[in-house]
Design a protein that fits this description.
It comes from Pseudooceanicola atlanticus. By secondary structure, this protein is mainly α. It has helices spanning about 5-25, 35-40, 50-65, 70-75, 100-105, 125-135, 135-140, 175-185, 195-210, 240, 245, 280-290, 300-315, 325-330, 370-380, 385-395, 395-400, 415-425, and strands spanning about 120, 215-220.
Length: about 425
């Protein structure tokens, strides 16, 4: 005979016993909080004032028979945690933050300088701090490394299809830069910089955007004197006052206009296609014929082109530069591409574009803000030739005092020869 019925009956009986015990003792060990108790327990009506003897008896009875809930209330009322059950309907969760706790987290700096701590930092100090803490991601010149954000450059690009939004080109408030560096940088070690360090790094970022000179010192006293180029580039969003009121009114459904007048027909507005072979088709045909006629005129141009090619043949007779040396120079120039551009469409970045630099007057690129040393060289009429360029690229700071280019220089003569050959091959 199978033992399954006996096993099944035993298991079922045991399960039923466990469930019954759990149900009976479910509320036995629950210590309800004061708020929950007040929400669940029924209010007790206050008794009428008794005679004196009865009052004494009544006052003695609760002491003799204390209720469990009364003990819970008494214990919780002795705690020092503020009771905020009535503050904003927060169901007794948490407590109000103390003023000291709020002040400890209130670190932000407003555009008007509110929250700015006392301190100062120079561009010179900021250059070293930026190199030690920021350059690994943002580059030595704040030009950005790989996909990390650029902090300098981007002048005049906000209207482009792919604008370069940096501290100098886009940010309207300097307080944003100070606040972000202070609270969130350097990456992986946030809030490790002192206030003076933050001032110095922000000063160097301003210098990298050509907004201050190399001897500038940023402090809480002159912080608001710094003018950001895009400070007026933003507008106040006033749609809540000017537009929302129009959208949130009851729409008109009947008799919304006193009279309806036809002012123009769709066929006249050219939004309705004409029938095939109509006037519109003829106009398109005529326009196409008119457009195609001038295409035959440049037939006489090859003669002029042939004449223009003659000097090129003569120039070819001159000794050409070594292509291999130019190719090597292009590889060396990769160290410079973070700040300089060459070729078609080259623009100024944190350094000037270098098209036709060999043979050009020093400090002559338009719309670029040079250091005082290069401005003086330009006024003196000094020219970039192969010798001066080699001397500059070997030791930039020794060649031109006060130069903004913090590149240490090329150490190998072969690299100097190659990059000069490459720059000589890049014309205007």
């Amino acid at each position: 005979m199978s033992k399954f019925p006996s096993l099944f009956i035993g298991i079922a009986a045991g399960t039923a016993g466990v469930l019954t015990l759990a149900y009976v003792s479910a509320d036995g060990g629950v210590n309800r909080p004061d708020g929950m108790m007040q929400m669940t327990s029924a209010p007790v009506a206050a008794p009428a004032a008794p005679d004196a003897p009865d009052a004494m008896t009544a006052s003695a009875e609760p002491a003799a028979k204390p209720q469990k809930d009364a003990m819970v209330v008494s214990t919780q009322s002795e705690t020092a945690i503020p009771d905020i059950r009535t503050e904003g309907g927060h169901f007794g969760i948490g407590r109000a933050a103390l003023p000291e706790e709020v002040a400890a987290w209130d670190l932000d700096v407003s555009p008007d300088g509110t929250g700015l701590p006392v301190g100062s930092g120079s561009v010179e100090d900021g250059e070293m701090l930026f190199s030690d803490n920021c350059a690994v991601c943002h580059g030595e010149f704040a030009e950005g490394v790989d996909n990390w954000p650029e902090l300098a450059g981007g002048d005049g690009t906000l209207a482009d299809e792919d604008p370069v939004k940096t501290v100098g080109s886009y940010w309207p408030y300097l307080s944003t830069a100070w606040d972000y560096v202070h609270r969130s940088m350097p990456y992986g070690n946030a809030q490790s910089l002192s206030n003076d360090d933050v001032y110095a790094i922000v000063a160097y970022i301003l210098y990298s955007n050509y907004l201050v000179e190399d001897d500038f010192v940023l402090s809480n006293e002159n912080f608001l004197e710094v003018e950001m180029p895009n400070a007026e580039g933003f507008i106040v969003d006033d749609r809540a006052e000017t537009e929302y009121t129009k959208w949130r009114t009851e729409p008109c459904m009947t008799a919304c206009k006193e009279s309806v007048e036809i002012t123009m027909r769709a066929s006249v507005l050219d939004v309705t296609p004409e029938e095939e072979g109509g006037e519109a088709t003829e106009e398109v045909t005529q326009a196409a014929a008119t457009t195609e006629e001038p295409a035959a005129e440049p037939a006489a141009e090859p003669v002029e082109e042939a004449k223009a090619e003659e000097p090129a043949v003569q120039e070819a007779s001159a000794p050409a530069a070594d292509p291999a040396l130019i190719a090597d120079g292009e590889k060396v120039f990769r160290k410079c591409r973070a700040c300089h551009e060459v070729g078609a469409g080259a623009k100024n970045k944190s350094g000037p574009q270098l098209n036709g630099v060999i043979g050009r007057t020093m400090g002559a690129v338009e719309d670029f803000r040079y250091s005082k040393g290069f401005e003086a060289a330009h006024d003196e009429g000094r020219i970039w030739d192969a010798a001066s360029m080699a001397e500059f690229l070997a030791k930039p700071k020794d060649f031109m005092k006060g130069t903004k280019m913090s590149f240490a220089g090329l150490k190998k003569d072969a690299d100097l020869e190659a990059i000069i050959a490459y720059l000589s091959s890049v014309g205007e």
